[in-house]
Specification:
alpha+beta, 6 strands, elongated, 28% helix
Length: 132
């Protein structure tokens, strides 16, 4: 994806959590604890997937994509559609993207992927100390 770098895939940790859940070491209440704001973001701003929830197996998972970065200003911490990321990558030097999978049925949620996007150049006022 565009200038995607520093990719972290949380698939192994997710698999370990699901294994712990199926072995009884973790309760469903502990695993399915999505915050109401995350559930709302999934409902109104998330992107549906074809993947079934690994816990309830009734609902399809929804991906919610958050962006964070010093250059983003008021856009930091907001939910963005995947289509918007390409334009943001051209506009901003560097920002981190977090993709969370959410089941709107049972409230399962897990951070699945994070990566850095951006054109790589810092903004003119970035990286300078206050004294300069």
């Amino acid at each position: 994806m565009w200038s995607q770098r520093l990719v972290v895939d949380y698939g192994l940790a997710r698999r370990a959590t699901l294994s712990e859940l199926s072995s009884g070491g973790l309760t469903v209440a502990d695993a399915c604890d999505a915050h109401p704001y995350l559930l709302r973001a999934a409902k109104y701003h998330g992107e549906p997937t074809d993947q079934a929830c690994p816990v309830c197996r009734k609902e399809r998972l929804t991906h919610v994509t958050y962006v964070y970065g010093d250059e983003l200003g008021r856009y930091a911490g907001r939910v963005k559609a995947t289509d918007e990321l390409q334009e943001m990558a051209r506009e901003f030097g560097e920002f981190r993207v977090y993709v969370v999978e959410v089941c709107q049925g049972c409230a399962w949620n897990y951070l699945t992927l994070s990566y850095v996007l951006g054109h790589g150049d810092t903004a003119p006022d970035q990286g300078k100390s206050v004294r300069e």
